[in-house]
Amino acid sequence: MSVLSVHASFFIDQMRVSELRDMMAEASGAMVGLALPAFIKLPDMPEYADMSDVKLQEHLENSQGMRCIG
Fold first, then answer.
1. Residue 68 lies inside a defined structural domain of this protein
2. pLDDT of residue 10
3. Which residues make Cβ contacts (< 8 Å) with residue 34, sequence separation at least 6?
4. Residue 6: beta bridge partners?
5. Burial (CB count within 10 angstroms: exposed 0-12, middle 13-18, buried 19+), residue 45
6. SS3 content of the chain, % helix, strand, coil (to 5)
7. Is residue 69 a part of any domain in this protein?
8. What's the pLDDT score for residue 60?
9. Is residue 35 classed exposed, middle or buried when 0-12, 13-18 and 19+ CB atoms within 10 A define those classes?
10. Distance in angstroms (rounded) separating the CA atoms of residues 62 and 44
11. pLDDT means per 10 residues in the chain (70 residues)?
12. Which of 11, 33, 51, 60 could bridge across to 4 with cysteines, CB 3.0–4.6 Å?
């Protein structure tokens, strides 16, 4: 998986966000003993919106072809 890390953020193909979140939970669990939360920022969603894997999948299916503006 290709990931670009910038400060405390990651730029990744939106189809792999759930996979990255799982990897981050596993890594933080191994380092500090608990899975730390990872927040998701998608182009048309508030930054700290609660985004379960199910909601993420629904969002991706409804926004096929959408690109980040900027």
1. no
2. 79
3. 28
4. 9
5. middle
6. 40, 10, 50
7. no
8. 76
9. middle
10. 12
11. 71 80 88 84 67 78 63
12. 11
Number of domains the chain contains: 1
The whole-number pLDDT of residue 33 equals: 92
Q: CA-to-CA distance for 22 and 51, rounded, in angstroms?
A: 13
* Residue whose token pair is 């379960």: 52
Residue 11 β-bridge partners: 4
User: How far apart, in whole angstroms, are the C-alpha atoms of residue 41 and residue 53?
Assistant: 14
State the virtual CA torsion across 43, 46, 50, 54 in degrees, nearest 10. -30
Give the residue from 63, 69, 29 showing the smallest Cα distance to 17. Answer: 63
Residue 26 structure tokens:
């596993």
Residue 21: helix, strand or coil by DSSP? helix
HSE value, Cβ hemisphere, 13 Å, CA-based, for 6: 4
